[in-house]
Structure formats: structure tokens, C-alpha cells
């Protein structure tokens, strides 16, 4: 299904979308943790970006499997790519929870702020930060192994 478009493999096209959107989502998540004032204006857009990136990961892995049948086994790259969804999903869920909780928690200038909500918001922010950092590392690992699989024997360092 996810093999070719006009005789060209789909995998590089979809991978580039993931390579742009997922790091953007991780950087944005880190920014929302560090700058809480950005959560309300930018949070929903960032959740949408993270959702699109996460949805494209299975498309990328499926198209990679189709490409593998044509060019050979990429080794570690395929294994790391299959694991990426398990990093992106928790980050997406935690990012969505962070944005949702922020919208439900009154600002410090509001009266009647509930300490339990503020504590939950901080806990989710820390977890979202950890998930974003872990996702960033995994994106790097997948990309590095993919570049080595595609170009390792083509380009010399000398």
C-alpha cells in the first residue's frame, strides 16, 4: 500500500515530514514547559503538529518495509524506526494533557486557585519534558541509523 508514487518510493517523502514535525513538536513541548505563558496561545497548534507527526510514523514504517523489499534490509534502522511510535505517543498524550490542564487551571492572578490542580500541572509538565527529551534522542538514533544505512558505503570521511 505505502510503496511508490509515480515510480518513486514513498518512504523518503513521509520520513522527511516526520523528521521535521516530530523534532518541532519536541522543541515546542520543551518550550511550553519552560514558558507556561505560551501554553494557551500555542498549545493547541503544537498538539496538532505532534498528532500529525505521530500519525505519520506508522506510514513511515510501512513504507520503509515496502522499500526494504526493493533495496534490502537496513538493519538497525528498521528496528529503531519501529520503536519511535512508543516514544511519540506518550509525548503526544502528555503534551495534550499539559495543554488541557493548563486551560483548566486558573492563572495565579485568578482567585480560588486549587493547589491540587497546580501540582498536577507541574507533574505533567515534568513528564512531558522527559518524554520530549527521550523522543528527541530516539529521533536522532533513527535518523542516524537511516543515514548510515543509505549513505554509509557511499560517502567517505576522508
TrEMBL record:
It comes from the Bacteria. Keywords: Membrane, Transmembrane, Transmembrane helix. InterPro entries: DUF2231_TM. Residues 7-156 form the DUF2231 domain. The chain crosses the membrane at residues 13-33, 45-64, 84-101, 121-140. This is DUF2231 domain-containing protein.
